[in-house]
Amino acid sequence: MKLLTVALLFSTTTFAARYQVISQHPHDVKDLEKYVRTVSESGRLWIVEGTNVPKSVLSNLRRLDGSEKHYLYSSMNKMAANPNIRNQVSKMSETLIRDYVVKLAGYKTRYAGTPENEKAVEEIEMNLSELGYVTSQICYASRRCSVLAEKKGSVAEDKVILVEAHMDSVGKDFAGADDNASGTAVLVEMARVLSTYKNQKTIRFFVTNGEEGGLLGAEHYVKTLKASGRVKELSLVINMDMVGWNSNGIVELETNSGFENLAKMFADLAATYTTLKSKITLGAWGSDHVPFLKAGVPALLTIEDWSTKTPCYHASCDKPEGLNYAYATEIGKLNVSAVMTKDAE
C-alpha cells in the first residue's frame, strides 16, 4: 500500500481526462505533479485530471470508467446472528495477534529475496502446518516463495475460499508491523480459529511474498491457476493488507464495481459480528486482490481506513507498539464470519 500526501500543482490548462491514481509510491506521486491536479481524494479513491500525460506517468493512473466511488455504508437491516458464527468469531485472540506481529517484526527485514525473508516464510509455513493444514510453497523466483495452507472441504472440495495477506516488507530494519505483519498475523489467527471448523468447501490460506515489489507472488499464483484451469475453483478471495492502525473504527472494503454487492455483504457481516463501521471503495488497486479481480474472481480487500492510515507507512517507525490490536482482531472476526457465510452457501 502506498500513499503520500502532497500538494499537487494546479494549472490553468483545460484538463481533458480524469483518472484514478493506482500507484502512490513517493516517486510516482512526485512525477504526477507536473501533469495532473486533484479532483477529489477520500480514502483509497484518489481522482485526478490532466492532459498530455506521458506514458511513464499513465502507468500509475487508470482512466475512469464511471464506476469508481466510495461511501460509508450503514446496514439498513442488520442480519440475525448465526450462533455458530458468533461462537467461532469469539475465539479470535487479540493477544495472539499481537504476539505474532511482534514475532514477524523481530526479523531485521522481511524484504523479498533476503535470508531473513526466507526464514520468515519457513516459520509461517511451520506454524500453519502445526495447525493441521496441508502446506506447500510456491516460488515466483529463486528463493522468493509464498506459502499455501489448505483444509479440504467435506462436501465440495473443488470450491475454494481463499484468504491472503502478504508477509514481505519494504525492508526497514525491524519494522513493517502494520504493513503487513498485521495482516499476516490475523491470517494465522484465523487459521487457528478455523482449524476446528467443519468446512464444506475447501479453505485455503495464501501468505504471499513480493507484494511490495509489484504483487509478484499473487500475480504468479493467479497465472499458474489460470494455466491449469483451476482459477474457476475460487468462490471468494479475502485480502488483508494493513489492518493494524485505526482511531475511528472504520474498515475500508475495496473491490471493483462488479462486486459491489459482495462489499455490502461484508459490511452487513461487520454490523452483525463486529464493532466495525464500513467504508466501501470501488476501484481496486495496489494489493494482492487485484490479480484475482483481473481474472474475474470475486475478491475484496479489507484494510484500515485509508483516510486515517498509519503515519509510519513504509517508514522505520512502523513498529508493533504503535498498532491497535483490538481493531485488527475485529477485522479478523469479520473475515471469519465471511468465510463461514460463504462456506454455507
Structure description:
The protein is of the alpha/beta class. The protein has two domains: 1-64, no CATH class; 73-344, Aminopeptidase. Helix content is 34%, strand content 25%. It has ten helices and 13 strands. The protein has helices at residues 26-32, 55-58, 83-89, 94-105, 115-130, 177-194, 216-228, 260-273, 290-294, 325-344; strands at residues 17-21, 36-42, 45-50, 61-63, 69-73, 134-141, 144-151, 156-166, 201-208, 234-240, 250-255, 277-282, 299-304. The protein has a nine-stranded mixed sheet with strand order 5-12-11-13-10-8-9-7-6. A four-stranded antiparallel sheet has the order 2-3-1-4, with no helix packed on it. Strand 11 (250-255), helix 8 and strand 12 form a beta-alpha-beta unit. Helix 3 (83-89) packs antiparallel against helix 10. Residues 2-15 have low confidence and may be disordered.
- SSE order, as H and E? EHEEHEEHHHEEEHEHEEHEHEH
Cα-to-Cα separation, first versus last residue? 32 Å
Largest sheet: 9 strands, mixed
Provide the residue-averaged pLDDT.
94
Low-confidence stretches: 2-15
Number of strands: 13
Instruction: Report strand order across the widest sheet.
Output: 5-12-11-13-10-8-9-7-6
Number of helices: 10
CATH-level-4 superfamily name of the largest domain:
Zn peptidases
Provide a compact summary of the structure.
The protein is an alpha/beta fold and 345 residues long. The protein is built from ten helices and 13 strands.
Topology overview:
Layout: E1 17-21, H1 26-32, E2 36-42, E3 45-50, H2 55-58, E4 61-63, E5 69-73, H3 83-89, H4 94-105, H5 115-130, E6 134-141, E7 144-151, E8 156-166, H6 177-194, E9 201-208, H7 216-228, E10 234-240, E11 250-255, H8 260-273, E12 277-282, H9 290-294, E13 299-304, H10 325-344
Parallel strand pairs: 8-9, 8-10, 10-13, 11-12
Antiparallel strand pairs: 1-3, 1-4, 2-3, 5-12, 6-7, 7-9, 11-13
Helix pairs in contact: 3-10, 4-6, 4-10, 6-10, 8-10
